[in-house]
Amino acid sequence: MRLELNEQHLLRGLANNDATAIETIYKENFPSILNLIVKNSGSYDDAKDVFQEAMIALYEKSRLESFVLTCQIKTYVYSICRRLWLKRLQQMGRVVGTNDSLEETVSVDEDLEILQKKDVEFSIMEQALQNLGEPCKSLIESYYIKKKGMTEIAAEFGYTNADNAKNQKYKCLLRLKKLFFAQYNIGE
After folding, report:
1. For the domain that residue 76 is a member of, what is the CATH number?
2. Nearest residue to 74 (alpha-carbon basis) of 27, 107, 38, 42
3. Does residue 113 share a domain with residue 99?
4. Is the pLDDT higher at 164 or at 4?
5. Disulfide check for 89: which of 51, 95, 145, 164 has CB 3.0–4.6 Å away?
6. Is there a single domain that holds both residue 57 and residue 112?
7. DSSP state, 143?
């Protein structure tokens, strides 16, 4: 529910030209678009161009009263960028075939399903992390999100050495995994 409210807040912000909303959408989505395009014969500049086109499309849609987003913003932006990039590749002669054969070989619907499943998994993981409790939550975030080393974590959390911090991180991961799969199995 919190995730859906955040998505709606970002869309309203985009429709109102709110710089924070635009920046958030950019930061959360551009890296995956860059990865998509670079892996498929493109460059950083190509990714910027395609992403900008997608942002314009999303902006225009967000300003329509009738527009209802039925997936996460990142899923929507990714599908637009993928279609735009495939079209551009075809125009440059890097993809052989018609639009019909292109549609058969690259199913955007399948990509959307995969992305939507990942969205659900990320939401479950976010909830599991919130339910993990301290100090495990902070320890996991320090290592995986803030990319701190074990020596630094040991000092920050008061462990005698990096090995003890590593052992605690392992125990925390086991607890997180248990919380995640308890919730994940309910959803199936």
Report:
1. 1.10.1740
2. 27
3. no
4. 164
5. 95
6. no
7. I
- What number of residues does the chain have? 188
CATH number at 172 reads 1.10.10
- Please state the pTM of the whole predicted model: 0.51
- Residue 104 is predicted with a pLDDT of 41
- Residue 10 CB neighbour total at 10 angstroms: 22
Give the C-alpha separation, 86 to 78, whole Å: 12
| Segment 105-127, tens digit of pLDDT | 444 555 666 666 777 777 888 88
Spell out the residues 6+ positions from residue 142 whose beta carbon is closer than 8 angstroms to its own: 148, 152, 153, 156, 157
Please enumerate in sequence order all residues whose Cβ is within 8 A of that of 185, keeping only pairs 6 or more positions apart, or say none.
none
How much is the pLDDT for 50? 92
User: Could you give the CA distance from residue 81 to residue 58 in angstroms, rounded to a whole number?
Assistant: 11
- Across 45-59, 92-106, 119-133, least confident range: 92-106
Axis crossing angle, helix 2-15 with helix 44-62, rounded to the nearest 10: 90
Residue type, 108: V
Q: What's the domain range around 101?
A: 1-106
What average pLDDT does range 26-47 have in this prediction? 89
